[in-house]
Amino acid sequence: KQCVEEHPKCNEPSAVFNPTRLLDIGGLNDVICLYETKETDPQLQYAALSHCWGGSQPMKLLTENQQDFKISIPVEKLPPTFRDAIAVSRELSIRYLWIDSLSIIQNDPLDWDREAAQMGQVYSSAFLVISAASS
């Protein structure tokens, strides 16, 4: 917060880029859901999680659960690393969070190729990147 308020360089507007999908994590007790950004959206302030996948991901975005995720994503089924990223983002009043396995449709090769090509921009445009050294 101090950085954005007191450092002119940190407050410079940049070209608008929003990832295709973000998690809307809302406030402390709000439901978490998938948000599909629109071209008309202003630059959204979001955090991005950089993490090592490790073993199998118990919870990931698939074509068959995409509509359900737009309504609600069960937090209790998320790995601790994801829950920690949600907690940090909420503590910093950042409403949106990008996590690759929940923001890219994992079983859609076209979506995966398109979104993977934008990952550099996803991280460089994020307000905050959270790096998890281990899961």
What do you see in this structure?
The chain is an alpha/beta fold. It has one domain (2-131). Helix content is 31%, strand content 15%. The protein is built from six helices and five strands, in the order αβββααβαααβ. The chain has helices spanning 2-6, 66-71, 80-91, 100-103, 109-116, 119-125; strands at 21-24, 33-36, 46-50, 96-98, 128-131. It has a five-stranded mixed sheet with strand order 2-1-4-3-5. The longest helix is centred in the middle third of the chain and has 12 residues, at 80-91. Residues 46-134 form the Heterokaryon incompatibility domain. This is Heterokaryon incompatibility domain-containing protein.
How is the topology of this model organized?
Blueprint: H1 2-6, E1 21-24, E2 33-36, E3 46-50, H2 66-71, H3 80-91, E4 96-98, H4 100-103, H5 109-116, H6 119-125, E5 128-131
Parallel strand pairs: 3-4, 3-5
Antiparallel strand pairs: 1-2, 1-4
**Which range best describes the helical content: under 10%, 10-25%, 25-40%, 40-55%, 55-70% or over 70%?**
25-40%
Task: Trace the largest sheet across and list its strands.
Answer: 2-1-4-3-5
**Strand portion, in percent?**
5-15%
**Could you say how many structural domains there are in total?**
1
Number of distinct beta strands: 5
Please tell me how large the radius of gyration is. Answer: 15 Å
Q: Number of helical runs? A: 6
* Topology order in helix (H) and strand (E) letters: HEEEHHEHHHE
